[in-house]
């Protein structure tokens, strides 16, 4: 059994190394997602799922993560009893999905934090007489990730023949950020009917800053509620861990009994359901 586990781990490590050397031999730039869409090595379904959640990762990291997840699940079914392995399988998948959600939310929040200062740079260049496309292209040069990655992709699409508002509309769909749609609408109106795009962009900056101020105020007002939800979510697992550390025979006797196993599975199911309900409640007020 140990040899099988070691072989699986070595196979997973070998897969990661193969992907690493393949990725190093590829000359694609890190932020060139248009090229990665053509030459990417990650499974299309996984890349699409990550994109729907606002996460962009190199093919190396995606494939390495998949290898680790598969190896962990395989080891769980080899080394653990079937029921525990099934629980570990659900736990591993739930953890991976949670990490994707958290990463995507953090990435969106970071981009929204960078967006007002970026638009301010664009308006300053517009005031100097630069065209709209050149103002965006020049402002991208010193912009850091993650917004810098997105804006470089926007500029690249414009160079490939897209209209600026079309490039922003595509990014709005990919990253699920409504503020990009707002920018795209402003640019489309300016392209079709003219007017002062600089004034419109200044108004958008004011709106973004008002939204950020409102989010911060709401987070401060709901801080106690969020902390309470966190305590309620962590208390049952904490009590179970303390009980197992203080009196391991209590839980092992329950697990060795058919009725005890049913009670434990019921408790885990109720805990997961409660955490999901609390998460939805906190998300609704946030």
From TrEMBL:
Name of this protein: Type II secretion system F family protein
Spans through the membrane: 67-100, 225-244, 264-282
Keywords: Cell membrane, Membrane, Transmembrane, Transmembrane helix
Record localization: Cell membrane
InterPro entries for this protein: T2SS_GspF_dom (IPR018076), T2SS_GspF_sf (IPR042094)
GO cellular component terms, semicolon-separated: plasma membrane
Main location: membrane
Type II secretion system protein GspF domain sequence ranges: 118-242
Membrane topology: Multi-pass membrane protein
